[in-house]
Structure formats: C-alpha cells, structure tokens
Amino acid sequence: MARSGPPSRPSAPELIWDGKYDGKGRRTLATLFRPPPTLSLSEQYPPNKPAGGQELWRNRLILGDNLPALQALLPEFRGQVQLIYIDPPFDVGSDFSLSLRQHGPAGGVIRGVAYRDRWGRGAHSYLHMMYERVLLLRELLAESGGLFLHCDWRSSAPLRLMLDEVFGRERFVNEIVWHYYNKYSGGKGCLPRAHDTILLYGKSEWFTVNPLRLPREAPIRQLRRQAVDGVLKNVKGPDGRVLYRVVTDRKADDVWDLPQMQPASLQWTGYGTQKHHDLLARILALASRPGDLVADLFCGSGTTLTVAQELGRRWIGCDLGLPALHVTRRRLWAPAQQEIESAPGFDVYALAEAERRAFVRDIGGHRALVRHVLKQLGTDLAPDATDADGLLGTALVRVVPGTGVWSAQQVARLARSASARGHQRLLCIAWEFQPGLWQELEAAGLAEAILPVLLPREWLAPHEPIAVPFRVLPRIRVSWQGPSASAGGGTVELLDWRAPSIGRAGTSDTSHAGGGIDDVDAWAVQTGWRSGEPFAPQVWVYRSRRHPRLATRLALAPPERGLVLIKAWDAFGREGTAVLPLPPTGGTGGTRRSARS
Fold it and tell me: HEC profile for 274-300?
C-alpha cells in the first residue's frame, strides 16, 4: 500500500505520534490501497425502479473499513458532501456491546460485541487511524461544507490539534458541548462527567451555519434592540420609553442540553453508543438543507442516516461491523417500505476483496494467515501438511486461498480430497461462500462431511487481529408452498436457523450458540433472482419493540424468471441464505418443498 505525500513539516507547534513521519522524516498521508478499492452492490431496498427512464438518487450504506471506503468514494463524490458527522471510537481501551432482548420462551438478554475500541500501540495507533481518515474526509467535503467530529474528554485535545493541522486553525468554527443531563455518573475523585464535545470545522471561508433558534420553556419579555451605526441600542417609543417584545425562542449557543439515549426509548436499538436523534437533528439543521448530501463514515447504529432520511437529506453511511450494518439496515427498512415514488431507497455496498487483500498482505501472505487461523483454533500444522492444512481433532482444516467467494463446487472438491486422505470431516475456512451453499452440499451428499467456516470480520478492523470465535456459515431451513391457479403466488416459510461455533474437536459447538427461529431477527425474500445479481427483495420482515413476534411465512409475488433467494439474519447481522428454484406456475394445486441452506 502506497502513501501519498509528503508535505513539509509545519512551522507551528504540532502533535507528533508514531507513524506520522516515515523513517526519512517525511510526513505520511492517507494510506492508498492498490489496486484502488471499488464498492460492490450487494442489496437494494426497495428494488431500483427508475422513474420514467431516469435514475433516482439512491442512498448508500457501506459495510467495510472506512479508509478504503473513502478512497472508493472520492472519485465520484470528491467535493460534493455538505456535512460530515463522525462519532468514532474514543480510545477508551475496551469493547462496546450490543444488548438485545432474547425472544422465545427463555426470554432474557443476549449480549455481543458491537465494536472494539482497542489499539495496538494505544494513543499512537488511535491517532494515526484518525489522521488518515480526517485527511480523506476533508477531500470529500464541498467548499461550503463542514465536519462535525464527536469525541469526549479522552481524545478532544489531541483531535483538535489534528484538525487544526488538517483544516487550518482559521477554519475552526465551534466547540459544541453536548450536556446530557439524564446520565447517572458514579465516578469518584472528580466531578461527574456529563458532556461530550463536538468539534466543528469548515472546509473553507464559505462555510456558514444556518440560523438555529430553540424554543424557550416559557415566554419572556425582552427589550427591543436595533443596530445604529453598528452598535445595538434600545428601541424607544414616541414617549421616550423603551419598548419590549415577548419572545418564545432563543438563539442557539454552543452548549446543548439534550438527553442521552435511554433503553426505555422506543428508538433504542441496544447498540451501546447510540446517540439521541434530537442531537443529530440539530446538527443537520445547523449545517445542511433539504436535498444536501450528508455522510457518516462511523455510522454505528445509523442515527445520522435515519434522521437525514426524515429531514429530506441524501446520505452516505459506512461502518465496519456486521452488528452496525444490521441495526442500521433495520432502522432504514421502515421508510423504504412506504413505497413512496419520490422517496429515495437505499443500497448496501461492500468492499469485499479490497479489505481482505489488504489484511492478507499486512499479515504476511496466505501462509501467515493460515498460521494465525490455526493458532486461533488452538492447533498446529498437520505433520503431512500440504497447501497449509491443519488438524483439529479428527477434522482436516483447510484455509482456502484467495479472497473471493467460494462456490459449492470448489468446496466439494476439497471435501473429496480430504476424504481420499482418510478424513471424514473438513473444516473449510473462507471469507465468503456462495448463497445457498448448504443446500448444494446436501444435494451432493456432503453436508455432514463439511463445515463451512467464516473468517471473522473483526480481523478487518484497523487494529491488531484479535481472538474471536469461529462460526460455521449460518444454516437455515425453508420451505415453499407452490402457487396455484387460484392463488397466483406462493409462500415461503422459515423453519430453522443455526450458527454454531467450532468445538475443539472440529465439531460444531451448539452449547453456546442456541439456534432456532427465536434467534432470527429479520428475513427477506426475492423472487426472480439470478446468480451474481444484488439481492433486491420484494418483501422483508423484522422484529421491533412494538412487534417482537416474527412472521415466519411470507407471500411471494408471481414469479417471472430466475430463482427465489431467501436471506435470514440474527440480531448481530450473521446471515444465512437459501436458494430455491422458481415454483412451477399454473396447475390447480400447490407444491410443497423444503430446503436447508
């Protein structure tokens, strides 16, 4: 990966961290990925239907590291974004959770990691991560645009110095204090910490804020004032007495008293660092207008994007983690289902191989990746290892080469090779598998001989690879009732869901994985899908606080071509798929078939 630059050292005092300058004293800029990363369209909500032959704007939600995502976005959007809000990690040194109420008879709460705020060299790694991204964020901004960077007491001082350097001290606009009056603080040895800081910088001298007035709790009498030769003076009546007016609002200042999001709110998602929608509404009102393009490249639970949708702004969002993507996608599904012709839909993009290639390259190549995988599994290379195989109990471990999607044919070929060497089970570990892999393996009689295992997305974060459990590709079971002449369409029923971890002996460990319909948070169906096309479902359903029960039967539109693709997600965004042939059309009775995938 090449780095752009280098500029000369600034003459003013500056903040220095490991990585800012290379070994020759040259200042590094943002990491550039080679080849340049591109975004791959993976999902559309609702399906894109150009109006009158004209393409309508589609909002964009990106799964991936925002550094390569920014590089992929710049050729199209350089200088076009009016407002960027980011709420990055705060360099806390811990993990943040996603807490969700468990459905089904057991009840309770299930918890998982939403994102990790741990950095290999502490503040040095954190600051360099932020520096690379801020450089590219500035390039994305329009000349009249502004950046809002959300932070707290841990990182506000160094981040402000960094922004002074990137934007120029003269481009500093405000340090906004968000005072959250409803947070309980049990801290000792200091005053309760009850505010965050939002640093606002303009791209250029043309950045201006919109008038922002806030309602008062009660009307007040106020002296009327007017400017006379540049000086404010009291307005007097004909009798010489000062005049008053009754005001019901006030001009907003840089201290905002707004509540922190609480679990009792109907908008609460369970995402640990979710920000209040009123905070984002105020930010968007301050520095954008309807129709403007806004971006949040650490979008987390998606509050910026949902508020932008409500306020008529176009948006681009990005996050690294599957939990964030899924929580955001669910929040955006409701407006996408309204079927308003003029309302923009949203598309989900992935960086896919760009992230994976960079990770494999940085870790030292495929052999180093295999050693890392085997270390995480708690095993070593097999004595007779070829193509970097290992053994886990009696199962053969294969970390497949490459960073693309592995098909059922490729996986089956590896399984037969393992069987020829006397191994009855194969752990096939890859970044991604084709939709409907499980049912293809069942049709080939190999479902019990193969465990398709996904490499963890957590490794693609901009910090050191960490120990996370390996999980088998989620396996769902579905059935469909074929259409009849009277019904005109069919129904798909979701029957089961499994996403077990890997046991020490190379078997799927279901002791901590749960499973079943109660683990499914959402699912969707598309008829007329073809391999290689994005997933554009006609119908999707999901749980909510108001509707915790999940519908497990969905009606199909009369099919025209292609296949039926079903996707099901658990609450942490893990995805299972099934692919069915189109139900037969015509006839007088329905046909019921089932499939596992």
Answer: CCCHHHHHHHHHHHCCCCCEEEECCCC
Instruction: Supply the pLDDT for residue 53.
Output: 60
Round to whole Å and give the CA distance between 570 and 323.
Answer: 9
Pairwise CA distance, residues 558 & 575, whole Å: 26
Q: Is 122 helix (H, G, I), strand (E, B) or coil?
A: coil
CA-to-CA distance for 304 and 317, rounded, in angstroms? 8
Mean residue pLDDT across the chain: 84
Quick check: 443 and 48 in contact, CB under 8 A?
no
Q: Report the alpha-carbon distance of residue 79 to residue 248 in Å, rounded.
A: 39
Closest CA to 154 of 88, 65, 96, 201: 88
Residue 366 φ then ψ, to 5°: -65, -40
pLDDT exceeds 90 at position 5: no
Q: Check: CB of residue 353 under 8 Å from CB of residue 404.
A: yes
* pLDDT winner (highest mean) among 244-248, 296-300, 499-503: 296-300
3-state secondary structure of 87: coil
Query: The pTM is what?
Result: 0.89
**Cα 27 versus chain centre, distance:** 31
Q: Please say whether the dihedral angle defined by the alpha carbons of residues 496, 522, 318 and 434, taken in this order, is positive or negative.
A: positive
- Report helix, strand or coil for 460: helix
Q: Quote the CA–CA distance of 585 and 238 in Å, as a whole number.
A: 87
How does DSSP classify residue 242?
B
What would you report as the CA-atom Rg of the chain, rounded to the nearest whole angstrom?
A: 27
For CA atoms 184, 188, 192, 194, give the dihedral sign: negative
